[in-house]
Design a protein that fits this description.
Elements: H1 2-14, E1 19-27, E2 34-42, E3 47-57, E4 60-70, E5 76-78, E6 88-92, E7 96-100, H2 104-122, E8 127-129, H3 133-136, H4 148-167
């Protein structure tokens, strides 16, 4: 489903504006509409972060950029609490924007994408705080484009270890 949405966003919104969409996540919005937080790169290699509103009129999908920032203006991304599984994070520009991602995994995916785009295009020092580094690093086994799958796999791995330990008797 997400690849279809990404393709539709590229075709209707980012492609005509000559932007390349790198990543998007669903964030909480009001009412029946959906909101997506997107990271795109312009022809002049500027990294944009956009809030896109998505709604349906009859059978037609509509998309509109309702807010736009530049990565060069991002001072910090705050994951709120690194040791809890929560979808909340703040983006610090000239003011603080509170976000609620669809899942904790999508929050980490977006933070990884911003970190990667920063390394590719800006090489600026911006802070990523209150994120678990294990999931934030691109070279980690737990970070992947398959998002939730590897996190679920890790949870299952730990659960099976606990089960084995609880069933084993120590002499």
């Amino acid at each position: 489903m997400s690849s279809l949405v990404k393709e539709e966003l590229m075709k209707t919104l980012f492609g005509p504006r000559r932007r390349r969409l790198h990543e998007f996540i669903e964030v909480e919005g009001a009412g029946a509409q959906r909101n997506y937080l997107c990271a795109a790169v312009t022809k002049s290699k500027e990294v944009e972060i956009c809030m896109v509103k998505h709604w349906r009129v009859d059978r037609e999908e509509k998309y509109e950029i309702v807010e736009k920032w530049f990565l060069k203006d991002l001072e910090m991304i705050d994951g709120k609490e690194a040791d809890t599984d929560n979808p909340y994070f703040d983006m610090h520009f000239h003011k603080v924007y509170n976000m609620e991602a669809y899942s904790c995994a999508s929050k980490y995916t977006f933070a990884r994408t911003l970190n990667k785009l920063n390394a590719m295009y800006l090489k600026k020092d911006f802070k990523i705080v209150n994120f678990d580094d294990t999931y934030l690093n691109e070279d980690s086994i737990w970070s992947s484009s398959s998002r939730d799958f590897l996190i679920v796999m890790r949870v299952c791995f730990f659960a099976s270890n606990l089960l084995c330990l609880s069933l084993c008797r120590f002499s």
